[in-house]
Design a protein that fits this description.
The structure is a single chain. This protein is an alpha/beta fold. It has two domains: 5-61 and 337-450, Aspartate Aminotransferase, domain 1 (Alpha-Beta Complex), CATH 3.90.1150; 67-335, Aspartate Aminotransferase, domain 2, CATH 3.40.640.10. The protein has helices spanning 5-18, 55-58, 67-80, 90-102, 117-132, 149-154, 188-206, 232-242, 271-274, 299-303, 320-335, 338-360, 399-410, 432-450; strands at residues 36-38, 41-43, 49-52, 108-114, 136-140, 170-173, 211-217, 246-250, 278-281, 293-298, 364-370, 373-378, 413-414, 416-418, 421-424. A seven-stranded mixed β-sheet has the order 4-10-9-8-7-5-6, with helices on both faces. Strands 1-2-3-13 form a four-stranded mixed β-sheet. A four-stranded antiparallel β-sheet has the order 11-12-15-14. A hairpin with a 2-residue loop joins strand 11 and strand 12 (373-378). It is globular and about 60 Å long. The two termini are 34 Å apart. The model has no long low-confidence stretch (mean pLDDT 97). The structure holds pyridoxal-5'-phosphate. Pyridoxal-5'-phosphate (PLP) is lined by residues 57, 116-118, 121, 144-146, 217, 221-222, 250, 252-253, 282, 293.
């Protein structure tokens, strides 16, 4: 695609002078200029297409520039661009209805809208604390829940460290992760059983009557895409119900088709049985075209606030443009059968290709995932499973992964790289041929970066 070199130079200049970037030492980054995007492709500073295997931050589930979503935003802007959250608006109600219609479980009927995932988790914990009159919250190590006060304390990765006040009442526990099992398990069934026993013990020793909520990504995403073994989420549901602990499932990344099912907690087909008390969503709810998140409340938790005010709100809660984008996104996913397509991509294209790649490259320790949600774990040795770069590595220590990223980009592939892993997380709209082409580039990039 033709690009205006002067405009690109100006973009770089303005970005460097005035934009302060997330999670970064400002002088050590050089952000890629994006000049356009369409479907599963983004265009760089030279107008070169890159196949987006990241869905940006894993949110463009319907791809870039979906015409129906773009049109819906435009039509809504012309009709009623904005309105405060205390009013009733057609498009907000319809978005809430469509969201609840796809959530397994019959009790999830009310939607509190936010502008992103962190605020959704923030308000889920607030609702659980009000509902139970308890304060403590359990969350998993190897998780990400967002960057606001409660959400970053829930987070079980190093991004919490610099923010940790130690005063949010969050206790972390281990979830199932067979490849790096802390329970010394050798099978999925063993890992599942031991992880549930561990959780029982944490709850017993913390005091069940002090715990308001357990917050859990149904499929932990950024931390490494660990699909829970069959029975784990049902087991967590049983334990939390027995102790009167509100179960909050974080579907911010896993939700809306990414796992090849509408929601991650239904990945083994038992979502109805798991029946969480609260579900948090964002990202895929409208593919990130306009910021939107939400907490979906079960009838029981919602009823706590029938006669008593919910102590939370946001100026842009349920913004009409974001809700219009959500209605159009969900309808497009239904009409184009995108969840089924994501499932097919995982079963028939991505999964088999990644397993072949793992056979060819010694540097690949494990591939795992489902739908359009896959992790490739890179290790120094298959025996020791030592990560190819240490956790949180930067600069020279991260050189091998930086070389891999460069090798992908030079072949026209935009990868998602986190620590010693690359995640294969393209939009649900990616065609079989596009996915195959991208996987071939990933294969070649591994060879170039690791000589394997
Ligand atoms: N929860 C999960 C599972 C996420 O992956 C993220 C973001 O990556 C969040 C919450 C936070 O969402 P946001 O960045 O929209 O606040």
């Amino acid at each position: 695609r033709p690009v205006d070199a002067a405009a690109v130079a100006r973009t770089r200049e303005l970005d460097s002078a005035h934009v302060f970037h997330s999670w970064s030492a400002q002088k050590l980054i050089s952000p890629m200029v994006v000049t356009g995007a369409e479907g599963s492709w983004v265009y760089d500073a030279e107008g070169r297409p890159l196949l987006d295997f990241s869905s940006q931050l894993v949110f463009t589930n319907v791809g870039h520039g979906h015409p129906k979503v773009v049109a819906a935003i435009g039509e809504q802007a012309a009709r009623l661009a904005t309105v405060a959250p205390q009013h009733a608006v057609d498009v907000r109600g319809e978005a809430a209805r469509l969201i609840t219609s796809h959530l397994p479980g019959s009790r999830l009927n009310k939607v509190f809208f936010t502008t992103g995932g962190a605020e959704a988790n923030e308000n889920a914990v607030r609702a659980a604390r009000q509902h139970t009159g308890r304060r403590k919250v359990l969350a998993r190590y190897r998780s990400y829940h967002g960057n606001t006060q409660t959400a970053i304390h829930l987070t079980g990765d190093p991004r919490r460290w610099a923010n940790d006040s130690g005063a949010e009442g969050v206790v972390h526990f281990f979830g199932p992760y067979l490849y790096r099992s802390v329970f010394h398990s050798t099978t999925e069934a063993e890992e599942c059983q031991r992880a549930l026993e561990h959780l029982e013990q944490v709850i017993a020793l913390e005091g069940p009557s002090t715990i308001a909520a357990l917050v859990l990504e149904s499929v932990p995403g950024t931390a490494g895409i660990m699909v829970p073994p069959p029975g784990y989420l049902a087991g967590v549901r049983e334990i939390t119900r027995r102790h009167g602990i509100v179960l909050v499932l974080d579907e911010v990344m896993a939700g809306f088709g990414r796992t090849g099912t509408w929601f991650g907690y239904d990945v083994h087909g038992d979502g109805e049985r798991i029946d969480p008390d609260l579900v948090t969503i964002a990202k895929g709810v409208n593919s990130g075209y306009v910021p939107l998140g939400a907490v979906v409340l079960s009838d029981e938790v919602a009823a706590t606030f029938d006669e008593r005010a919910f102590p939370g709100g946001l100026t842009y809660s349920g913004h009409p443009l974001a809700c219009a984008a959500s209605v159009a996104t969900i309808r497009a996913m239904e009409d184009e059968r995108l969840v089924e397509h994501a499932h097919h991509l995982g079963e028939d294209v991505i999964g088999p290709a990644l397993r072949e790649i793992a056979d060819r490259h010694d540097v690949v320790g494990e591939v795992r995932g489902t739908g359009v949600f896959w992790a490739v774990e890179l290790v120094k040795s298959r025996e020791t499973r030592e990560p190819v770069v240490p956790a949180g590595a930067t600069g020279a220590a991260n050189a091998p992964m930086a070389a891999f990223t460069k090798a992908c980009l030079s072949r026209g592939l935009l990868p998602f790289v986190n620590g010693n892993r690359t995640h294969v997380v393209p939009p649900c709209t990616t065609s079989d041929d596009e996915a195959r082409w991208g996987l071939a580039q990933l294969d070649a990039a591994l060879g170039e970066a690791f000589g394997s």
